[in-house]
# Entry
Amino acid sequence: MAAVTARVRARARVVIVMNPRSGGGKTARYGLVQRAEGMGVQVWTTSTGEDATSLARNAVVEGAEVLGVAGGDGTVSAVAAVAADTGRSLVVIPAGTRNHFARDLGLDLRDPGRALDALVDGEPAQVDLGVLGSRVFINNVSFGVYADALLEPGYREDKPRAFAAVAPDYAKGKQWVEARVDTPWGTIEFPQVVLVSNNPYHLATPRWLGRRFSLSTGQLGVIVLKRRTQTPPDLLRHLRGELRRHKRGAGPAGDGAAIWSAPGITLHGEARHLDAGVDGEAARLPLPVVCSIRPGALRVLLPKDRPGMPPEPAMRP
# Structure
């Protein structure tokens, strides 16, 4: 352990921001504080008085050359924004519930502590960041039923109940996104769902549904589900069905959805604001909502030994 500590210290001063509440307490369950401190790394934990953004900024002011983050995607997004703005490398430790960003980086979700190996033999990689006004997103921005569920009281404690509370109006066609979206095939008014992702999702094969095989395409992925009389219970599987009927790039995915990639997208309309989910955190955004991408804006350090991702499967005609 002494040799490992020496190599980490020789490399740079490292501060890891950890959210002890993420993932039902994964930082404690996997002993991440002890594992990091055993490598000679400083660990700063979030609290009601100090959020991830302020901790990361203070770490940079005090001389941190590398930032680490252990928590869910919302915590990761906050620290990633500081790392990108200050030119620091970021080490991601998957300690949230779903860990979408860490998963698409190829990190080991079963043993979050393995991500700490990046501090010893890390390989640098440049990845894109989504931009939403003055904030960034590492995964996606969503409008519609998911965003409304996030605003329900007690969402974190009982997600099925929150979705059950908001889904009926969408299912009956009584609720929609109060905005217009310009697509390559024309304007869609009042869609049911808009999902903007930092790099496109794979939708063609069941095994890899919703994965991102690259985080450095310089493109946003855009999915717009048109207003209909009934909301499908599984959005991604519904979209896969749409894709079967239309080859990618040949036009909209089908009568029910439009799917494309672009460096930017704007939602506009007469409403004062839209409720949104930004990397799984509830937000209220003024219109127009402008999403764009910063290619290669974030430098991440990845451990050499990680599960990785297979080559993207070819889409069937």
About this structure: Confidence is low (pLDDT under 50) at residues 246-250. The first strand starts at residue 14 and ends at 18.
